[in-house]
Amino acid sequence: MRQHLIELVLFSTYAELRAERSRSYLGLIWWVVDPLMQFGVWWLLMDVILHTAGPGYLPSLLIGLTLWQWMKSCMIHGGYAIWSNLNLVRQVNLPPLVFPIVAMLSDTVKFLYILAVLLVILWCSGYPPSLAYLSLLPLFVVAFLLSAGIGFVIAALVPLLPDLRFVIEQVLNVVMYLSGVVFLLSNVPSPLRDILALNPIAVIMDAARGILMQGLWPNWVGLTKAALISLVACAIGYWVVARLAPRYPKLAT
Amino acid sequence: MTNEVLVELNNVGVAFSAQRRLGAGNRFWALEDVSVTLRRGERLGVIGRNGAGKSTLLRVIAGILTPDRGTVRRGPVSCQLLSLALGFTAHLSGRDNAVLSGLMLGLRRREIMQRLAAIHEFSELGDFFDQPIAAYSSGMMMRLAFSVAIQVEPDVLLIDEVLAVGDAEFQEKSGAALRARMGEGHTVVLVSHDEKQIAALCDRVLWVEHGKSVLEGARDTVFEAYHRDLHLVGATA
Question: Most buried one in A32, A75, B62, B70, CB count within 10 A?
């Protein structure tokens, strides 16, 4: 049973990526161009218009946006996945978490492509690879688990409260501003900085910038705390989905 | 047929909410009180008027719906509702959709790979098999869907009305394939409006009315009682 589910998840992920690639004219290229365009908007605003970008801001912004884009799309696509597959939920006996996991895995594959482009840009801009790159793997695992946990909770609720969709994107925008995605935590005044540093997403952003730009190992205590919060989020998400699962096949689309 | 009980429903009821809400809103009972026992090798037909709860019953046996009252006891068996075009994605080829749909229907990947040639042949799609199904006509789509679905081999096969699809020729072929599958000694539950079909394919019949099981037993006994109820005894004799 478990092996069958793994096969189903992997093939569905492949199918989703393949279908998405062929849905648009430029296909795969959009996966990379889309975040670069977003980067362009922020660069225009913060550097060209407001002149607030200090040294090292642009690569920091690029790293922040790349990671956040991945985490956000896992939360949103994963969060809508049960709701958008209700017609399948009504016809086949599958654990509902299959659908968010497929959405999150396909977003993760796309992220890996974007990450490759990001690394090339960083290397060409004078930020060479270092031994600290080894810590990227645990960092990404924590980032994935945190997004998955939040995505599972959203996924559990959206089928019953579809109106949540109108709020979630705005809430995630606020989360982005509070997580040091487009600014550096070190630029925030002291008491506020300590509060913002409790946010696991801010910890992940900070660690990623340290690794990729300065070759610094992450703050393991902070990362462990973020990992624990992520695991708790996953457990809550799993529990809520399991609790509400009997109601999904009864819902009309 | 052995006496091994595969699935047993006792006084099962399933309620649906009239409105989409987090809390329990107004509810109506699609199934109120159904009891049925399914043994290995049995071919059970389910009859009843429109809205009697037949399809809901199949989804309970399949494990898709959890009853709100009563109990379901299921042995360590797989129960699969025969659904057509499950998980079909427009931009994928017929081949990829066959694999995806097969996985959704409970087949392992290697089992589907072994059967891909048979699916390809049965579907009569030729070179279209490797084209995106967005380019298919609805008839071609149904041929592919049926060709995949007929490959599933659960312990209990649940069929809801879909006995034949496509044009007249393919209808005959798909109907024959399904009848052959049902005749292979599998355990089957068949819901159909077509009494002739149930009479030809099932040994036992469950009659459901207004969400309640009225009678379960040998085919002829149940049909007789059902017709008496419909005042049709004279007409069909």
Answer: A75
Q: Which residue has the higher pLDDT, B20 or A77?
A: A77
Indicate whether A131 belongs to any domain.
yes
Amino acid residing at B208: V
Q: How many domains does chain A have?
A: 1
Tell whether A19 is covered by a domain: no
B65 to chain A: which residues are within 8 Å by CB? 246, 249-250
Q: What is the pLDDT of residue B233?
A: 46
State the complex-level ipTM.
0.86
Inter-chain contact A92–B99, Cβ cutoff 8 Å? no
CA proximity to B102, closest of A4, A98, A19, A96:
A4
| B-chain residues near A106 (CB < 8 A) | none
CA distance linking residue B48 with residue B209, whole number of Å: 6
Is residue A129 assigned to a domain? Answer: yes
For B75-131, how does the pLDDT look when each residue is reduced to its tens digit (9 = 90+)?
Answer: 888 888 888 888 999 889 999 999 999 999 999 999 999 999 999 999 999 999 999
Q: Which residues are B69's β-sheet partners?
A: B13
Could you tell me if residue A202 is inside a domain?
yes
Q: Which of B65, B89, B103 sits opposite A250 (nearest CB)?
A: B65
* B38-68 pLDDT per residue, tens: 999 899 999 988 888 998 999 999 999 999 9
Q: How far apart are CA A177 and CA A175, in angstroms?
A: 5
In this complex, do A92 and B109 lie within 8 Å of one another by their Cβ atoms? Answer: no
CB pairs under 8 A between A and B: 69
Q: Closest to B22 (Cβ–Cβ): which among A15, A23, A160?
A: A160
- Sole residue written with tokens 């610094």: A216
For residue A89, the chain B residues in CB contact (below 8 A) are: 64
Question: For residue range B180-210, what is the model confidence (pLDDT) as tens digits?
Answer: 887 787 899 999 877 888 888 888 999 999 9
Q: Which amino acid is at A163?
A: D
**Enclosing domain of residue A93:** 29-250
Residues 6+ apart with CB under 8 A from A10: A105
